[in-house]
Amino acid sequence: MLLTIDNLHTTFSTHRGTVHAVNGLSLSVAPGETLGIVGESGSGKSVTCYSALGLLPPTATTTGHAWFDGVDLLNCRAVDRRRLLGNRIAMIFQDPMTSLNPYLRVGDQLIEPLRLHRDISRPAAEARAAEALRETGIHDAERRLRQYPHEFSGGMQQRVMIAMALITEPALLIADEPTTALDVTVQAQILALIRNLQATRDMGVVFITHDLGIVAGMCDRVVVMYAGHIVETGPTPALFETPRHPYTGGLHKSLPAIQQRGAPLYTIPGNPPDMTEQTSGCPFLPRCARAAAECGAAPMHLEPVGQDQWTACIRRQCP
Amino acid sequence: MLRFIRSRLLEAIPVLFIIATLTFVMIRLAPGGPFSDERNVSPATLAKLEAHYHLDQPLPVQYLTWWRKTLTGDLGPSMRYGAHSVNEIIGHTLPVSLELGILAITFALVIGLGAGIVAGLKPNTVTDYAPMSLAMIGICIPTFVIGPLLLLLFALRWQIFSVSGWDTATDRILPAVTLGAPYGAYIARLTRAGMLEVLNQDFIRTARAKGVSEFRVIYKHALKGGLLPVIAFLGPATAGLLSGSFVVEEIFDIPGLGQHFVNAAFNRDYTMIMGTVLLYAVMIVVFNLLVDIVQAALNPRLRLE
After folding, report:
1. What ipTM did this prediction achieve?
2. Domains of chain B and CATH, by start
3. Whole-prediction pTM value?
């Protein structure tokens, strides 16, 4: 396995009390595999990845393990973690407009991972950066390197982010909703770009999204998160065809379908729970149409329900 | 860039014209005149004095005459210190104020940037509260309290520095600290706010995700954006510091320009008032222009083509 997260707990201390953002999460990514993490806003998708890479603000407390290359990212020295970040592990973010430094030339930002992690001269790094820009479909790369982020469109900025992430040929790419801020045509281009670059490099990808369409097109395996827990995980086809958790089923039903034109869109009733309170039992219980008495008592854990598919629903039924 | 500087300098012309005109009108509206508090001046002498300084001419004529001479670089004779011209007085005192001002702004920057960055890195901890409390005190206590307090401790009690004067290098320290302290405190607060703002931006997270060290995150990725509010403040602050401070010069008995701003107004020294006000306005214009240039250098989004 490339990355193995084991029993991750992340809490934030806030004015309203302690927010339990991730509650005992375990997952793993293999080389060349694309793992999708889906869930509503606030379900802990992004926090899981930021926790593993140590990118959370000081108000966050993280316990557990995140093994990569024999290093426990959660319990190693910051220096050892920094040696891997931007090198063997790279990340791209949701909003390219704010994720690039507006005060620095695009070229200077692009070569930074190379200059930090490789023994490479500045001209050689710049040549490599121009090549990386061309690989992401940016023309006139040499001139573009001397420009600032505000001289790029949103889609072009995300290409720069991807080029910057992939410039050190990382083994693992974490993509945090990389197309959410982009319009649909650009979205398709960026997704195709990530898929192509991944295929040529046998790179593991963690794809955080709330878009099930993207999951169907991009991911080999899916992790469905709710209230900081994994509620269901399995191969993408299985999760789409035979979801074994009512929340996964609800997400499917929420997708607008062309056949049901004019019919009101389905929404899962209720709201995500208050994360400052920790409940025993299933966190989805208050919103679940199939809830039974025992759902509130049994502690959450994943049970196998078929070929590599696991669910946290104790009723384990196809909803 | 050159076109930008030229257009800004052209814009300054109407600004300076309006400031000079308003000043001229206001000082002439104020009751009294340059010779009105001298006792026992006979009407004949007064008339002679006024004739000597052309004060007997109609105001529009005086105004135009002042402009004509000023544009040739002659600010006219002081009406109070008859033997000296305004140019001479500014020429003698401005270097003193410039030296004091440069020392004060250096002190303010070193203290302010240092304290502000340290505070901004770890908000709501001891290293934030301690310098920020000091900064608040620095802002709240006026210079006419800090100055005598420093004198009391360092000059009278411990006798490290002399009480007043402007002769030796050590004479510069207490006045520079007194003058710079409130500015340093203000810069510290601006720096802290700027750093906090920038360090919460997404692109800082991007830098950390690239494995950039904390030190490099700060000086390479955060500092440029974090210092923009400080730069904006530095323009008028520098102009104010370099043109002298009446209070600090009085406390430490320094022959600077600051005293002339105040005394000229009290004495109705018309030419001196016009000279000092115009000098101050020019300094404000120049330093604001410098600020704009530095800001454009730091922030590419401000660069105009």
Report:
1. 0.90
2. 86-267 (1.10.3720.10)
3. 0.84
